[in-house]
Amino acid sequence: MTTLYLVRHGRTDWNDQARYQGQCDPPLNAQGLRQAQELAQALRPVPFAAVYSSDLGRARQTAQALADALGLPLRLDVRLREIDLGEWAGQLVSVIRAADADLFARWRSTPAAVRPPGGETVVELAARIAGALDGIAGAHPAATVAVFTHGAAIAAVRCQVRGIPLDRIWTMLLENAAWEVTEWPQSR
Question: Are 156 and 137 in contact (CB under 8 A)?
């Protein structure tokens, strides 16, 4: 098994504004840049074999600080992106809630059965992320690897690892710049 440090990216202005980011690409804000440096220092003693990241800027910026501190190349994987929110990406949560109250309420209560307009379901997200982690674990068996990704992506993995239904994904979110350590692969 491979030990994975699943790390959520640092803060962005969109986090502060309660704006859905999805696969949009806002950069880290000043707080997020500080968080990236603090993460790099906190995780520097861990004997990582590799550092992977979503290709989205906020995750990549966060991961680059650790990769630089360790002298390791940063490996980007598009499969580590945040959930595709389709038409909801870039919008304030309050606007979505007001404009599409019924769909938004179902998205919050039973997300495994709901697709944001033009986006992907949390089931599709979970499968995509699991595929990425399978590839990483296959490339680094019995090693320790840092994987920088996004809130819903990590929450989907946390659900899978704990045997929790994906409809509870919103209860499994980590704060920005937090991490979870897990073993992979998981039996599915």
Answer: no
Q: Is the pTM of this model over 0.70?
A: yes
The confidence score (pLDDT) of residue 185 equals 87
Active site residues: 9, 82
Contact 70, 44 (CB under 8 A): yes
Identify the CA nearest to 12 among candidates 65, 60, 75: 60
Return the closest-CA partner of residue 112 out of 150, 69, 160. Answer: 160
Give residue-wise pLDDT tens across range 127-164. 999 999 999 999 999 999 999 999 999 999 999 999 99
- Sequence letter at residue 66: L
Helix (H) or strand (E) holding 60: helix 57-70
Token pair recorded at residue 141: 């068996």
Domains of the chain: 2-184 (3.40.50.1240)
Which segments in the chain show pLDDT lower than 70?
Answer: 186-188
DSSP state of 26: P
Distance CA 117, CA 25 (A): 19
